[in-house]
Each structure stands twice: as structure tokens, then as C-alpha cells.
What we know:
By secondary structure, chain A is an alpha/beta fold. Chain A has helices spanning about 20-40, 65-75, 95-105, 120-125, 145-160, 175-190, 220, 245-255, 255-260, 285, 295-310, 320-330, and strands at about 55-60, 80-85, 110-115, 135-140, 165-170, 195, 215, 225-230, 270. Chain A has twelve helices and nine strands. By secondary structure, chain B is of the alpha/beta class. Chain B has a six-stranded mixed sheet, covered by helices on one side. In chain B, strands 11-12-13-16-17-18 form a six-stranded parallel sheet. Chain B has a four-stranded mixed sheet with strand order 5-4-1-6, with no helix packed on it. The interface between A and B is medium-sized, with 24 and 20 residues.
Amino acid sequence: MSVQLDAEGRLRHLLTTEGLPRDLLTRILDTAESFSGVLGKSVKKVPLLRGRTIINLFFEPSTRTRTTFELAAQRLSADVLNLDVATSSTSKGESLLDMLHNLEAMQCDAFVVRHADSGAAELIARHVAPGVAVINAGDGRHAHPTQALLDAFTIRRVKGPLEPLTIAIVGDILHSRVARSQLHVLRTLGAGELRLIAPRTLLPRHCEQFGARLFEDMESGLAGADVIIMLRLQRERMSGALLPSESEYFKRYGLTEERLQHAAAEAIVMHPGPVNRGVELDPRVADGPRSVILQQVTNGIAIRMAVMAMILGGYNEPAIASASDEEESG
Amino acid sequence: MSRVHIRGGTIIDPSTAGHGTIEADLYIAAGRIVGIGSPPADFTPDRTIAADGQLVVPGLIDLAARLREPGSVRKGGIVPEARAAAAAGITTLLQPPDTQPVTDTPAVVELIHNRSLEAGGARVHPLGALTRALAGEHLTEMAALRDAGCPGLSDGGQPIRNTLVLSRALDYAATFDIPIVLTPQDPDLAAAGLVHDGAVATRCGLPGQPVATETAAVGRLLALAEERGVAIHIGRLSSARAAQMIAEAQRAGLRVSADTAVHYLHLTEEDCSGYNTTAHVCPPLRSAEDRAGLRHYVASGAIGALCSDHQPHDPDAKACPFAASEPGISGLDTLLALTLRLVDEGVLDLRQAIARLTCGPATALRLNAGTLQIGAVADVTLIDPRQRWHVSPETLHSRGHNTPFLGWELTGIATTTLVAGEVVYQAAAAR
């Protein structure tokens, strides 16, 4: 995946976590760590991207991801334009690349792209003008790199280094761009053991390439797990003959307090959101002491600031503290 | 009708056991082969073609080429594509019936026929539809389609879902002894997948199409062919397992033949990595094991024909996300060289390679072509087997530049093509 790295191995785009080297992933997490310091202050802004324009190009509806990208860009002092394309020009027969070149003509610096087709972000990255960056905010079933990075960041903050950890990902792996991106990040960062838990209809073939162990039942899959990542189940899976019902899914694969007992004593529970309460997660678990779901949301802003700063601000060293102090006084 | 003397070439005619490969001159008069080695009495050529160092073979036959007419003429058209076929050494091609409108009436057949006469390139034979509008419900007027010039009938890449209708379509076509070309795809499994259900599908997050898409369909077709006692041709195999099923059925005495497109013998699912839309084909490129298995059954003869499965596209059809891109490879220009590459790679000997492009497809569809015997129609292709060429938009004759072989260095090219004894193509260097 050379299209997202330049000759010196710096990030030009962020399209997928596949193939990103460990030191680069660590640098993103370290940079996010320094930005979370900024977020805790009363003036939550740094001038790194002042005068730069970022277009949020969302071909699929999204509230949370788009909002956190927007906040992250604003806190780096960039100008942000939100384009909800699901309802505009593609319905007029304009091709994706035509639209892209029209937007480029408006002299923007980066596109944050979400699209229902796998590979859409890479297609756009291959066709943008030199110097314009593309950040993938989710493409089909393929990748959602900033989500995976914020998850790794959250795990590292709460549990420390990943090497000793057993991490279980539960649910609709087949359709999940989040799971694919997580598997690459967690494996590269050296997670002790990766597990996938799902019924066969929701498990793609050839998962061994991700270095994961496969489980078909929760009890054995969760045994001793330190981190449990629950995936969202889309309603349409019932109509595609993949599952009989939400209630049967919850009975077999929902995370309840009882099932949580199988995991390690200090296990944490994560979810990329939005949660289907009573489908993937018992509300008592979602709101319980093990849940770090809201921390994930907060961390999402720091991670997205880090990614944008590194790509657009040429920002490669995690030494943000002094820069942010200057801004506060200015 | 001119008299032509093809001088100094090496004749390879796999249709005949006697003279497989001989250094001999070929003589043509009134559109037919009239002499091999020595001319008939009183033969004075109007034209002599020097074929030194070249192969002289029966004109190539392509069992599946979509010229996009009637229909999407911005992607192709009978005139440009039939000429491109001639430039690729192809003298006869069969166009599947999924045109717009569907080739399900003699009027459409006539239209295609007239346009191909205008082109003056390869012969274009339209396959007729087995069912009206390819909808899989009502039979077409099969005998009328045959009389209008269809050499065979087909489901046109859209398998007949209703097995009762399929069974009756086979029976009715067999009544008139019309060859049948069928698509080995379970329609539901096919519709759910874009690429082979393998490691690349999982990694790229593209929906996978399992091998069972093909084997389940081949099982159904073989069951019907056996029970109804009809001959069928199964077009475009992509998996080793399906080829094995067909080889076993042939050994058991079923009248079943098969082809594959030459790209399945050179590419795999890995070629779709990076969302390479030019490698988006249906059925999908499969695993390296499937490619090896297909090569084995092409060599054994269970797969008797290689075709281009030519599907030219305009650039927009491929300049989009993989799922939104249209499947198909523009294949006319590379059919011959990719087949000869199998000789270089030790898969086939030269005679087998030429057979899969000439008498193999002719036998499968019972076409009166694919031979250089005396008295045969003089469809002849001259090949420079050593000429290297680079696949690029400049070297492609087809309007469609959608090929994953762009950038490949290939060896072997048609230099002169004759249809019914008339030169329809001659490379600049050969003039």
C-alpha cells in the first residue's frame, strides 16, 4: 500500500492500517497523547493548520465520525466544509471522479472521505492532485483506520502495552471495516493474542491471514480476554439470511454481565458505536464500570487531530506541548 | 474471388492428423483451400503472400466476444471490433445474445449480419437467446433463429433460474440439433460476490463469490445433459473443480464441451488487489490453484477451446470504485499472444495451442471452420511467432482499452488474416 506513504515513509494519505509500520503507528498514538493534553485545557485550539481547508466528503450518513473529524480539524484551526453527498450530485449522474476534480478546483488541502464502496478512498487518493491528502473515514467493508487507531490508543491508555493482552473482537466481522482495520493495527503493535468470535455466517473466509484465532461461541472465545471489542450489528443482516433474529443473536453473542465473567478480571469493553442496546450489548454492560465506550469517543478527536497534523502539518514529532502553550497565549 | 499463393510458411493444422506441422505453400482459389504443397493444375496466383518464418494456421475462432452492438456502441461497435478481431488473427467470432435489444428474433440476427458485412473483418456470428429477452420464461423461436444464421443458442451469461424451463429449452433446441452454450453460474451466489471468495476478498473487504457458484451450476447442467441426452457447451470456466467435473462427465460419455477465457490461465485473485478494476471479471479471477487446474484441463483437452471473452468498455466504466465498475476485459488483441505464452510456459505444445483456438472451438459448436483441408473455406491466419510487442493503448486495435495486461510484453502476433480467401487484415510490416 505505497500510495499512502511517501518515499521517506511519511504519511501522505491515511487509507488503511494495512502495511503501516509499527514505529509510525506508535508515533500517531504518541502524537494523539500530546493532543489530549490540549483537549483538557479551556482553550482547545492550536494553530497548526491555520489557513488550510479540509472537506468532509461523506457519501454515507454518519454523525459521530463526521463530527469528531470536524472538531479535530477546528481544533487545529483549519477551515472545514461538510459535504453530505448522499443527497447531492451523485444522484445527478456526476461520476465520483468528476465531482472530486470539481472540489479540487476549489483549492482544498484534504478530503475526509466516507463511502459505501470498499476501495473508494484509495481510488480518490490515486486521482487527487499532488499535495492534496485523503483521509479514509470508512470505505465499505474495507477500512476505518482512524477508528482502529483510536481503539488502539484507548487500549494503550487503559491497559498499557499491548504485548501481554488477549483481545477479542465479537460480531459481524464479515461486514466490518472496523474489525479489518483493528486487526492490522493490533497485530502490528504486537498484541499478545487476537480472537474473532462470530457465527459462521458473519465470519469471512481466510481470516488466518490476519493472525487471529477463530471462535464460534462466546464462552470459550472470551475466556481470559483482557479487551472485548463488540461490533455493531446492522438490522439488514436479518433479511439477508445471515441471522434468524436479533434476540437469538443476543442470546448467543450478546455481551451480558454473566458472560463477562469468563473474561479476565480487569477486562474492558469497547464498541465503535452507535450501540444497539440489547442486541450486541446488555445495557448494564454498556453503561457499566468495564465500559470505555465514551472514552473511545473522546480519544477519537485526539487521534484525528494527530493524523491531520501529521499529514497536513508535516508534524512528525510528538512535541506538541510547547506549541499549544504558545497558542493559548496568542 | 482472387487466387492467393501463401509462400514459404509453416502450416499447422491441428484438425488433421496427417500433416500436423509442415513446411509447405498454401494455395487458395474461389475462397477455398485448393492446394497444400503443390498448386492445382493451371494455378496462376493474383497475389502472393510471403510467409517465411511465419506460421500458417486456420483462422482463429473466438467463442465469446461482445462487440456491444446493438446496444452500447460507445463501448465498441460491430464495425470497429470485427476489424480489431481480424487484426488479432480472428476470422470467426460468436457474440453472446445479451445485446440490447436481446438477440432473440431473426431481425436482430439480420442487423448484426449486415453490420458485419459492412465491417469486412472477422465473421460475426450471433448466438441466439434460448429464452425471450433472456428472461428465462418463454422459449424463443429457435428454429427461426437458426435459419436466420445463429450457429447456436445461449443463456447469454444470464443463467436460466427455473430448472424446468432450462430442461425444456435444452430439449427443444436438441429437436433441431442446435448447439447450446450455457453459463455455469448459480445466479444467487454470483450476484452476491464481486471477487473470488478468497484471501483478497477478505483483505479488501469485497464480497466473495465462492467456487460453489460454478460447481453447483455445473452439477445442475451435467445432470440435465445426462438425463435429457443432449449435447451442451459450458462457457467460461473459472475453477479447477468445475473443470474436473466436466472431465469426469466426458469420461462417462456425456456430450459436454467447455471453454475458458485465456485470462483465467494467466491471472489470479491477487490481480484484483489494490481495487484494480481492469481485473474485475465475471466469473472472478480465482486462486493460483484454480489457475493451475484450469491449465491442466486445457492441456488434457477437457477444456477444448480458449476464448477472449471480449468485453470492451469506455474508461468511465472502470474509473470508479470496484463495486461500481462494470465487469469484463477487452480481450481480442491479446487472445493469440496469451495462448502462445502457454507454449513458452510449458503448458501446451504449439499444436495444442493452435487447436484450442481453431478446431477445438469449431468442434464444440459444430462450426464449419477451423481447418485447412483441401476444399475448406479459406479462413487463414499468418502468425509471426517471435515478434515481441508491448500491450499499450497504442498497440490495441479494439476500442476497449480495459485490459489488465496493459504493460505486459507479449510474443507472437497475427501478420495477415484472410476470410474466405480475401485479405481482411495485413500488418504494416507485412505489406
